[in-house]
Amino acid sequence: MGRATIHRASTLALVVAVCLAEVTVLGVVRGPDDVTASVQGNCPGAVTLQWDGAEADRWMGLMFARTTGRFTIPQIWCAGTETGLGTTGLRLVALMPSGSEGSGERPGRVNAFACGGYLQLIVNDGFPCSTSNVVQIPQ
After folding, report:
1. Residue 1: exposed, middle, or buried by beta-carbon count in 10 A (0-12, 13-18, 19+)?
2. What phi, psi does 112 have (nearest 5°)?
3. Would the pLDDT of 26 be above 90?
4. CA-CA distance, 25 to 6, in Å (whole number)?
5. Which residues have CB under 8 Å from 120's CB, separation 6+?
6. Is 122 or 23 the better-scoring residue by pLDDT?
7. CA-to-CA distance for 36 and 50, rounded, in angstroms?
């Protein structure tokens, strides 16, 4: 298995240039809070990421990969948390708050590179961190 590098994103800047679109929910990988993610829109184009079931007022990371798998976060926040993503094209796309009620939405734009890739939210709420379902961006 190849080595993955997780790139930090600014906690104030939402860097969603890579990945959001209308999705198909795959085999669900859920954390203890049953965080659910979905995306509405077109790929490439304008989309909205929606989530529910996260612990309120926590930071969460939006991760993208070209494949599914069982990547374990090796260091930084949420070290030891197993994701449902593979290592190909793996990156931390954005850091954002979970919202005062643990749900919310973020609009963004998707470029063609992201079409067919996978998304997952990781909520920094303990050890291990909670994970959302894995969703596939349509091709």
Report:
1. exposed
2. -60, -30
3. no
4. 24
5. 29, 37, 62, 63, 83, 84, 85, 131, 132, 133, 134, 135
6. 122
7. 8
